[in-house]
Amino acid sequence: MSAADGTAGQTTDETADGVDKPWGEVTPEAARKLLVAAVEAFAERGYHATTTRDIAGRAGMSPAALYIHYKTKEELLHRISRIGHDKALKILQAAADGSGTAAERLDGAVRSFVRWHAERHTTARVVQYELDALSEEHRTEIVELRRRSDAAVRRILNDGVKAGEFDVPDVPGTTLAVLSLCIDVARWFNAQGRRTPDEVGALYADLVLRMVTAQK
Amino acid sequence: MSAADGTAGQTTDETADGVDKPWGEVTPEAARKLLVAAVEAFAERGYHATTTRDIAGRAGMSPAALYIHYKTKEELLHRISRIGHDKALKILQAAADGSGTAAERLDGAVRSFVRWHAERHTTARVVQYELDALSEEHRTEIVELRRRSDAAVRRILNDGVKAGEFDVPDVPGTTLAVLSLCIDVARWFNAQGRRTPDEVGALYADLVLRMVTAQK
DNA sequence: GCAGGCTCTAAGCGCTTGCTCACCTTCGGG
DNA sequence: CCCGAAGGTGAGCAAGCGCTTAGAGCCTGC
């Protein structure tokens, strides 16, 4: 087992005492409450179907309070998207930079990336499916982060091919397929469903390894 | 090769003279023009970000014209979603009902399903990603069609396991993954990109077969 | 040749939207 | 003990929304 991200392969936001606390970097408290409310609302109804009154209401504040902490509704989406993409990229880069064979690193990458999309499917849904609602400038910034996520996975595949572990005729296409498979978890995953995030991660890691492993 | 939809396993909407003509079943002409305009607008901006004025404008008509042919904007989405899901289900059932080994049928299913999502990615984007905008009643109807699509793919996998062709420990989970992989093509496929729908179909069919084929 | 139905438009209604503004409260520092 | 900054509210503005209505144009059948 690799320990690429420092503390025993964790993939959730945790403070030193082990308490799970996403969006901990957003301050002050009121700004975080608004942002968390926005994530829920955007994930449930989509960005365009969500009103600023709904967001403020979920946060227990008046509509005007939103504009003390954020210039526009789109800035809220951008902050969510930015933080989420940073996290996603970190997960993939940690796996790509880890030690072990290419197969072990690919297993870790898919496992943790899928687990994040399942555990944080509310956030992930916004991050992965509301890109089009961003302004031109913000979207460009986010697309660059996605390009780097793609590069991290492609690097693992290339390493595996070079080492003879993998048989992948079309590395860019397969990279796309692997990421696509993981991302789509955010669309269908249901917390009330039968599978836990860990189970989905294990299943998907197995399926992806079969896709790329050289037949003996 | 099966002939479930009449003429030699085709996956696009064609008239007898071979001309490609989707939405041919929508009449009269003005209603079809409005529907095609709605598909484009919904795919580009999303259902909620699209205005009835935009749809009518793209169709070269006044905003009020829309309400002669459709009761509400949501009815337009429902018609699109219904026709699209019928088509998707037909593609998968034709493949599942076809002759040949399970591997051949799975190859055909993925190939044609992916090709449809790529060729008709505008339509597919609306069909696959705007479900939440449907009314309760309409969504229930559509979800039933999706359940049947799922059943068609699961049947192929079960057949393959029974015949010893496939090694699939988790058939429902793998069914979900296969469909998820194909569906997500609608999200990322770009007509200006490097790959043709046929190429993506071939790549994906290969990847899926590797996921399920028993190792020798 | 005109009655009646169908298709379409110009105008606009009632409402909701993202966002603003004048004002109120709270609170640490001189 | 008052002060000014920071965080919050109620009311509301301009714009845009889905949808309706009154009536014009144009076919078709008798």
TrEMBL record, chains A, B:
Matching Pfam families: TetR_C_24, TetR_N
Regions recorded as binding DNA: 51-70
Keyword terms, alphabetized: DNA-binding
Every HTH tetR-type domain range: 28-88
Region (Disordered): 1-24
Keyword DNA-binding (UniProt): yes
PANTHER family in the cross-refs: HTH-TYPE TRANSCRIPTIONAL REGULATOR RUTR, HTH-TYPE TRANSCRIPTIONAL REPRESSOR BDCR
Designated name of the protein: TetR/AcrR family transcriptional regulator
Protein's organism: Streptomyces enissocaesilis
